[in-house]
Design goal:
about 350 residues; alpha+beta; Rossmann fold; D-amino Acid Aminotransferase, Chain A, domain 1; Dna Ligase, domain 1; 3 domains; globular
């Protein structure tokens, strides 16, 4: 069935460029499958578009949206570039465009679009969208809440939630075992994530957390192999192992071609694979997720999978992992997008 689809991308988060790249690729793939697709930046909206909104269904994908820069975008510069001087994170014309679509494909990432607020807004407007509902999205975005909900179901590294301030930074720096993992509470694409091994590195990591809002989890460092497992419509896909050329799987290593080796299916014992896929599905169900998600793990030398977090709107860029996992079971990129849409529409009808 040919659908009218609006792909929402961009927005105002540190993952803005990743989102635009995902949205560009999704748009072209769905057009190749015969759908009418309009791609729009959630934050900028239609302020630079002089034609009727309907014309966006035939508009070319901006070339500058296809690639992800090495560094996360300067959001102050993004704000300054918008002519419409409003505090709204939803640009002019976006909601009207969405209201005329059969479904909104959420290509958004990060706190602007992945934390349940956009989902709740679309629910209230009666507009179907892809991915999990507002509650599951909000729970999964909060790394502390996610861990609290699943800690009795799967193995996860020890952690604590902190709010870092200038006043308590030194106290926190003196109480954290090293090495550890410092993660902003509600961020993705490894933005702000550090693995400090010494006191100076820890202080720098905590100062970066302050710049990103102050809330974080400080997590036990587990030495092992990094593996991720996607869940598509309630079925776990083959695991994929991430091997960065250097450092850890940070923002640059995620999105620059060739910065990391990605092996799918992962070369691991069958019992490791079975447990990883089982644990990913356990977390997916515990949080009430829908359509597609991607769970991240570290597997220790003894084969124990340590669950780290789960992403409810996993990337769909040229270097993203879920399309690679789907390809391992014979699902091409365009078909994957359609499967996500079909599963999402079913979830919306079921109230999920």
């Amino acid at each position: 069935m040919r659908l009218n689809i609006v792909v929402l991308a961009g927005g105002l988060s540190g993952e803005r460029d990743v989102s635009l790249s995902s949205g560009a690729k999704v748009t072209e793939a769905l057009r190749q499958r015969g759908h009418r697709v309009a791609l729009v930046d959630l934050y900028m909206g239609l302020e630079d578009y002089d034609c009727p909104p309907e014309g966006l269904y035939d508009a070319p994908v901006p070339e500058r949206w296809r690639k992800v820069a090495r560094q996360a975008p300067d959001l102050d510069a993004v704000r300054a570039a918008r002519r419409w001087r409003s505090e709204s994170q939803i640009g002019p014309g976006v909601l009207d465009l969405c209201a005329g679509a059969d479904v909104v494909y959420l290509g958004l990432h990060g706190s602007c679009g992945e934390d349940g607020r956009v989902q709740a807004m679309l629910d209230l407007m009666g507009i179907p969208y892809t991915g999990s509902g507002f509650l599951g999205s909000a729970l999964a975005m909060d790394k502390d809440l996610t861990k609290r909900l699943v800690k009795d179901l799967v193995t996860t590294p020890a952690w604590r939630k902190v709010t870092v301030t200038e006043e308590n930074l030194e106290e926190l720096a003196g109480s954290c075992p090293l090495p550890c993992v410092v993660k902003p509470l509600a961020s993705g694409s490894s933005i702000g994530v550090s693995i400090p091994g010494g006191a100076a590195e820890l202080r720098a990591a905590l100062r970066e957390v302050i710049a990103l809002g102050g809330d974080a989890v400080i997590e036990e460092y587990i030495r092992g192999r990094e593996l991720q497992v996607a869940v598509l419509d309630g079925v776990s896909l083959p695991s994929i192992e991430i091997i960065p050329r250097e450092g850890f799987y940070d923002y640059e290593n995620k999105y620059q071609p060739g910065a990391a080796e990605e092996v799918c299916p992962a070369h691991i014992p069958a019992e490791w694979e079975d447990r990883l896929r089982r644990d990913a599905l356990t977390v997916y169900r515990a949080l009430g997720l829908a359509a597609a998600a991607r769970a991240d793990f570290i597997v220790a030398e003894d084969g124990t999978p340590y669950f780290l977090e789960i992403n409810t709107l996993p990337g769909m860029t040229p270097t993203s992992l879920v399309p690679q996992e789907a390809a391992a079971v014979g699902i091409g990129y365009g078909e994957l997008c359609e499967k996500i849409i079909a599963a999402s529409l079913r979830a919306r009808k079921e109230g999920r």
